[in-house]
Backbone:
């Protein structure tokens, strides 16, 4: 069923009886050509592109909970391609371009909204770094504008310009950055994948992997054994747990990142703002809630909830930057598990086990990467070669010394 | 006026307030809701999507409908629940999310076209043409969405934070909470009793029952009085415990001044308390839930318990003719309470078949309310009695679909609650350690049961702490609670589940029809429970409707995750004192006061404020000052405060060996009385930090670090010392703040210092890279002959408290040499002129090889980072190398952060040859000079390259040169 | 969170800085690139009991090995990292 305004009118006038399930609820078959483990954003996008772009068939997505139950449903919805390093920027720019045509492609309004993201600058060194980054972006075909203080003031005159501990000196603006309705991304990909014949199997947890002679044959699940020619794992947050079934140790730690939303407010913030002198970034959803966040709590955790000090730290940053939000109220704080990698960048690669592929280590940058991650992982699964924009995302980069360390923090995941 | 007799309000005092500009009166004890209801105002808000007229639904913090904007200016506060907002004299409240007025709201048209706005409609349209989303559709949606408004003015009020400790935290001051606090308090435990209400008592204030042979509210007053007299009990009203964090840490907000027009001078608006309590009881009561039936959202339709509370506590009846619709006994009790207050209870519509009939009331059993009427307020209801329909004229309807234990706090740690068939609700299961539910929050719905469970919990805690806590239960009601679940009454129109977000039973059905059957999908697709009340009244109803559709049990259907905060918390109080410049503390250098007296311009360097430059009279541009400072230093002598550099004393017989392992180069061979530049790597081989380390004695070194890494280097050294080589005899201590340290640089540096230092500092006595412990007028000092500027230079250190004296002494002694004091800008100019790396080059992704310091990495020993610095990609021949850059045309101004492109190369990523890291104007050379990382840079000396800044559209031809622009042979520093 | 410091008793986790898996104590001094790579980059990352390094920066500067359940955050114990290192045979 194709969605459109006409369809809505037709259904509205006939009691909405014609809407069909957005996905089937198939029982798992005994085997598939491809199994994607993980029905989050990346897994669903992978299945979608594998079926549609790479014309592969007999694909299943196995999800231990409900579709979209991972970080695709609990992030702060920001998209951008304002990365610095050659290993990253082409990939994220590819992703942003995919976002720009996504809704028409999968016929689902995910509310891709390019209202701009501005990274505030508070020191001369930060301006130098922003200049370097902005140039790297443009060299890679992305857009970037360096704003001075007055340029920022023109956009957000009510920020703290007059009494700031760290005065705003400018900002790096990417106009094509913005936000997307996160759940809708999962649903759009799921619906598209289902329409393309992919079996989306919920409540199906992978409990083991059958590996013989260095080759994967299939996966054990809570709904029985399922054979596969190729298995792609895209379970960020649970990467270490799932890959342990294959005996692998990863360059990844799991950390909790909290995110926050305020009560609904009339429009206040048009785009996305990141505070360069504290741990705070914010946008406003179409419903009116201020959606904001800060740093990870900083310790290994699978608990999907955080602690008070970080809530305070984020609010302190918010109040320092935006003294006008003091009367708004925090409505909800939640936590997700981040695959924090050793250099802050992801992995999309084959493993040492034939037929087993891995996609993870997204730190807290996974949402914006969803389309390109799916596309590149599908490319790797279908062709056994890395996509040109994802050639740097290899397991062996740590052994070779080819880290992609945007923050320059080294092999300590909680610092990325 | 519909005030009746009684109530817990002070009728001797009248308060004036306005709602939408119209004046009303209230009494102390009133909430905005009770006062408006008393004035026959039922219409208080509009719903989110359909802009339906809405009135008060509850009498507590779970309110979904009666949200208002209160106060004005910077204090304007959106989405305030009228049900918990205390009226103060002069309060101004406004309705929100309506235009032009509450009674006539243009967007009420949405309701007429509601079938086009079914759940999730927006996912299916607004996609064409693509550009129209941001340009047309979304702006309309954004303007229509949202609730209240912020003014964009700064919040003028102050906030604070504090810590509290207790043996037992009691959350909620209803019967269970009061009894728990009383039992524990009498036993001498340190108790905190926190209650979100301004009047302790909970349901005891809302019901007309008796406890210990007195009115239940009177018993609550008496108990509070006794608690207040107990020395170890702290009563905290207006205090919401909003979060349960790990290991017995609770977050609470005390609304110190929200019941006043403005905080009293010197007082805060709110305080954030972190309460540390190994034991806590959750006595948060229960929340009544509605029943879904057609048009169950009109102003005048309320929860039955809310009607009861308004009558008993606030002496208000929101109608002349009242009906009750219930599926459980509490609805009957509400009816009796209302009747006892003289209210005309037209009918009790009881969905259950059996049970005894209420005396003196038309009690219809096996009956349902199936529809309501009244555009801006309820005028009538239609009831169904097994097929027979009747319309009753009523202006208030109390609905009771049962009660849900208020288990939000308990479930914040994500354990699944248990389903309890007896009460048809979830009860808390395994909660966070130390937290137990009591009273109605645990499913104990009788007053006596609540009192008992509170007392029992307190006794258990006391015993765990080795104390006895006997208690005697007061006499109280102990009736069984009977319920026959009824969730939704079938109907043809719309029956609301989530009133604020306009989620109806039809939406739940559509969600099911489209395969969004998981409760999380239901929530996310329909927005059920995502409003400001977080579904406190509607969530279980929605899950139950879904359960009926899927045929699963409610228990299997489950509920969405409870998250903090329990009720919304202002960002102001979470930010606390972090306002304006108080966001972070300032660190001042020892010369700060002197510099401030001179009119110095300061710059933030981390937490430090450093002198950036010191303008002199007549200097209007910063460059004038900086150029002068540089030239004067190179010509004669300059003084700079370098105290911010990290300083670490390292002592012990293994100190030298230790340094050999933490530095890439060798320090054990350094002679006593000498300094050496050290390069410290991270284990991954990247340069971590650099600085000079001096050997003051055979077993004593002083390390300096960069300002930025002072803390992290020290942490790293402790890690190496304690975790890696625990038996090394090496002790370290940070002395960054113990010593004030000044650089004195320039040809006359020695002459200047010789006037102050008591000892001989001639070149022979203190050669280049020498160090010594000396005295200045008898005061102990350290002197290091090291140079960042490339000049003959020293760093002189004295105990920090003499730092102010020393800068004044240095300046006085320097007058003879026309000495200048220079700031960080001049420091930066001189270090670039000398090709020293600093922050922009020490970026955490650069190796010693990148910096041209590859030879410093000794491969003869195992030091941190040496092995992994040898990985293949890090040794690439054509990798980045530090180079100097100067414009071919001296007048050309480059920009740091620009990238390098070959001449003729297209501006695309493949041609990116590196970037310009640091740029300064060299007054000495008369043109800009820069450092940069250039691909294969070592082999490209003399090459002409483009320095391109695509952000500004500049493209400047420059020459690659040695990074040592001045005195490459280092003759000056040895002078 | 509260960390049971073996010398100082319960201390707020805010006083500490977190580093990660306590396996980092087992640095293969003098090891080759492959050995150091495995040591520095690969982690067990368990969902459950985890021995990890915390540094009492706003306190006595002890490095601790804390045993904590990463699924529940429950803390089962804390030791001085120096003692753990010695028990593993680390010395100079």
Residues:
């Amino acid at each position: 069923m194709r969605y459109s305004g006409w369809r809505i009118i037709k259904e509205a006038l006939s009691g909405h009886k014609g809407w069909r399930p957005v996905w089937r609820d198939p029982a798992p078959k005994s085997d598939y050509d491809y199994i994607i483990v993980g029905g989050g954003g990346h897994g669903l996008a992978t299945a979608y592109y594998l079926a549609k772009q790479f014309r592969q068939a007999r694909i299943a997505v196995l999800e231990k909970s409900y579709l979209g139950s991972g970080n695709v449903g609990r992030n702060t919805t920001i998209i951008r391609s304002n990365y610095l390093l050659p290993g990253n920027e082409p990939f994220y720019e590819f992703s942003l371009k995919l976002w720009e045509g996504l809704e028409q492609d999968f016929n689902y309004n995910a509310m891709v909204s390019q209202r701009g993201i501005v990274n505030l600058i508070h020191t001369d060194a930060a301006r130098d770094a922003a200049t370097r980054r902005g140039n790297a972006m443009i060299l890679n075909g992305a857009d970037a504008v360096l704003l001075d203080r007055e340029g920022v003031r023109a956009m957000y005159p009510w920020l703290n310009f007059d009494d700031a501990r760290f005065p705003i000196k400018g900002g790096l603006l990417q106009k094509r950055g913005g936000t997307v309705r996160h759940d809708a991304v999962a649903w759009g990909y799921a619906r598209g994948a289902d329409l393309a014949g992919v079996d989306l199997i919920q409540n199906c947890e992978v409990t083991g992997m059958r590996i013989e002679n260095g080759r994967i044959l299939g996966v054990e699940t809570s709904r029985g054994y399922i054979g596969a020619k190729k298995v792609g794992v895209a379970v960020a947050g649970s990467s270490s747990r799932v890959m342990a079934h294959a005996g692998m140790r990863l360059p990844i730690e799991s950390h909790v990142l909290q995110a926050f939303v305020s009560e609904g407010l009339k429009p206040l913030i048009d785009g996305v703002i990141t505070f360069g002198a504290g741990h705070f970034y914010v946008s406003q959803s179409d419903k009116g809630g201020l959606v904001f966040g800060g740093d990870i709590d900083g310790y290994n955790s699978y608990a999907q909830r955080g602690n008070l000090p970080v809530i305070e730290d984020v609010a302190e940053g918010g109040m320092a930057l935006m003294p006008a939000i003091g009367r708004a109220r925090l409505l909800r704080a939640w936590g997700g598990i981040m695959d924090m990698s050793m250099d802050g960048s992801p992995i999309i690669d084959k493993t040492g086990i034939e037929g087993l592929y891995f996609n993870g280590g997204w730190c807290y940058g996974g949402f914006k990467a969803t389309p390109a991650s799916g596309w590149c992982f599908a490319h790797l699964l279908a062709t056994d070669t890395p996509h040109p924009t994802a050639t740097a995302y290899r397991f062996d980069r740590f052994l070779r010394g080819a880290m992609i360390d945007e923050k320059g923090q080294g092999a300590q995941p909680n610092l990325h | 006026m519909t005030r009746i007799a009684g109530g817990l309000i002070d009728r001797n005092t009248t308060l004036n307030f306005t709602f939408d500009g119209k004046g009303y009166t209230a009494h102390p004890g009133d909430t905005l809701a009770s006062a408006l209801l008393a004035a026959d105002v039922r219409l208080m808000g509009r719903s989110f999507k359909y802009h339906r007229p809405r009135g008060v639904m509850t009498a507590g913090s779970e309110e979904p409908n009666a949200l208002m904007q209160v106060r004005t200016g910077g204090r304007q506060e959106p989405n305030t629940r009228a049900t918990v907002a205390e009226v103060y004299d002069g309060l101004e409240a406004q309705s929100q999310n309506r235009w032009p007025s509450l009674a006539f709201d243009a967007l009420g048209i949405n309701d007429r076209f509601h079938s086009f706005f079914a759940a999730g409609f927006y996912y299916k349209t607004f996609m064409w043409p693509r550009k129209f989303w941001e340009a047309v559709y979304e702006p309309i949606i954004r303007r229509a969405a949202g609730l209240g408004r912020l003014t964009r003015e700064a919040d003028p009020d102050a906030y604070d934070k504090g810590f509290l400790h207790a043996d037992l935290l009691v959350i909620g001051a209803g019967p269970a909470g009061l009894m728990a606090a009383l039992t524990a308090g009498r036993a001498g435990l340190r108790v905190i009793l926190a209650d979100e209400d301004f009047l302790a008592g909970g349901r005891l204030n809302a019901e007309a029952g008796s406890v210990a042979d007195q009115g239940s509210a009177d018993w609550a007053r008496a108990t509070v009085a006794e608690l207040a007299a107990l020395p170890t009990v702290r009563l905290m009203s207006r205090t919401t415990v909003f979060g349960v964090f790990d290991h017995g840490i609770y977050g609470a907000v005390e609304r110190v001044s929200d019941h006043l027009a403005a905080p009293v001078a010197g007082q805060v608006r709110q305080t954030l308390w972190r309460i540390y309590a190994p034991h806590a009881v959750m006595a948060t009561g229960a929340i009544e839930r509605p029943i879904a039936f057609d048009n169950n959202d009109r102003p005048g339709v309320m929860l039955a318990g809310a009607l009861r509370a308004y009558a008993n506590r606030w002496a208000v009846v929101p109608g002349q003719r009242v009906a009750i619709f219930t599926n459980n006994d509490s609805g009957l009790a509400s009816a009796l309470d209302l009747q006892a207050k003289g209210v005309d209870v037209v009918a009790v519509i009881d969905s259950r078949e059996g049970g005894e009939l209420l005396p003196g009331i038309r009690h219809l059993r096996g009956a349902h309310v199936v529809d309501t009427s009244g555009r801006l307020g309820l005028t009538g209801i239609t009831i169904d009695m097994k097929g027979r329909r009747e319309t009753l004229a009523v202006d208030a309807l109390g609905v009771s679909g049962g009660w849900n234990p208020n288990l939000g706090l308990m479930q914040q740690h994500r354990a699944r609650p248990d389903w309890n068939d007896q009460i048809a609700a979830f009860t808390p299961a395994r909660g966070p350690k130390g937290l137990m539910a009591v009273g109605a929050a645990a499913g104990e719905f009788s007053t006596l049961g609540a009192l008992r469970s509170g007392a029992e919990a307190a006794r258990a805690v006391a015993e765990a702490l080795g104390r006895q806590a006997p208690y005697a239960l007061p006499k109280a009601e102990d009736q069984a609670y009977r319920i026959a679940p009824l969730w939704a009454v079938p109907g043809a129109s719309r029956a609301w589940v989530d009133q604020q977000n306009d989620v109806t039973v039809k939406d739940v059905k559509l969600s099911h029809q489209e395969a969004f059957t998981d409760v999380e999908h239901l929530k996310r697709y329909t927005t059920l429970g995502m409003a400001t009340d977080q579904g406190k009244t509607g969530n279980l109803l929605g899950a139950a409707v879904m359960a009926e559709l899927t045929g699963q049990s409610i228990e299997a259907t489950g509920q969405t995750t409870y998250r903090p905060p329990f009720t919304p918390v202002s960002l102001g109080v979470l930010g606390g004192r972090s306002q304006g410049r108080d966001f972070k503390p300032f660190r001042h250098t020892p010369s700060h006061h002197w510099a401030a007296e001179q009119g110095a311009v300061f710059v933030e360097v981390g937490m430090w404020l450093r002198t950036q430059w010191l303008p002199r009279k007549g200097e209007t541009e910063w460059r004038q000052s900086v150029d002068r400072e540089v030239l004067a230093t190179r010509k004669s002598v300059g003084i700079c405060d370098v105290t911010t550099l990290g300083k670490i004393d390292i002592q012990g017989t293994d100190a030298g060996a230790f340094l050999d392992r933490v530095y890439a180069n060798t320090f054990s061979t350094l002679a006593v009385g000498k300094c050496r530049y050290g390069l410290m790597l991270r284990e991954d081989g990247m340069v971590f930090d650099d600085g000079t380390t001096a050997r003051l004695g055979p077993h004593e070194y002083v390390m300096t670090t960069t300002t930025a890494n002072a803390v992290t280097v020290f942490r790293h050294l402790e890690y190496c010392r304690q975790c890696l080589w625990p038996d090394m005899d090496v002790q370290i201590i940070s002395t960054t703040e113990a010593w004030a340290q000044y650089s004195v640089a320039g040809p006359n540096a020695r002459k200047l210092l010789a006037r102050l230092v008591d000892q001989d500092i001639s070149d022979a006595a203190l050669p280049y890279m020498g160090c010594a412990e000396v005295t200045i007028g008898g005061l102990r000092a350290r002197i290091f002959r090291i140079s960042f500027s490339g000049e003959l230079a020293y760093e002189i250190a004295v105990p920090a408290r003499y730092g102010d004296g020393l800068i004044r002494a240095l300046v006085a002694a320097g007058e003879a040499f026309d000495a200048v004091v220079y700031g960080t800008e001049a420091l930066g100019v001189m270090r670039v002129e000398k090709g020293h790396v600093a922050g922009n080059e020490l970026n955490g992704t650069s190796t010693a090889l990148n910096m041209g310091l590859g030879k410093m990495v000794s491969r003869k020993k195992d030091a941190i980072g040496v092995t992994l610095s040898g990985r293949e990609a890090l040794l690439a021949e054509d990798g980045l190398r530090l180079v100097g850059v100067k414009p071919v045309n001296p007048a050309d101004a480059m920009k740091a952060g620009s990238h390098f492109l070959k001449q003729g190369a297209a501006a695309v990523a493949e041609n990116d040859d590196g970037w310009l890291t640091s740029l300064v104007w060299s007054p000495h050379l008369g043109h800009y000079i820069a450092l940069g990382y250039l691909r294969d840079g070592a082999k490209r000396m003399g090459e002409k390259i483009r320095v391109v800044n695509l952000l500004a559209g500049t493209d400047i031809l420059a020459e690659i040169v040695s990074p040592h622009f001045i005195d490459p042979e280092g003759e000056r520093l040895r002078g | 969170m509260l960390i049971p410091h073996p010398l100082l008793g319960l201390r707020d986790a805010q006083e500490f800085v977190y580093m990660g898996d306590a396996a980092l104590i087992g640095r293969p001094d003098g090891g080759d690139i492959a050995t150091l790579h495995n040591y520095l980059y690969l982690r067990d990352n368990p969902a459950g009991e985890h021995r990890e390094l915390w540094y009492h920066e706003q306190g006595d500067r002890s490095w601790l090995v804390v045993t904590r359940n990463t699924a529940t955050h429950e803390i089962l114990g804390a030791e001085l990292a120096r003692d753990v290192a010695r028990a593993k045979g680390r010395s100079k």
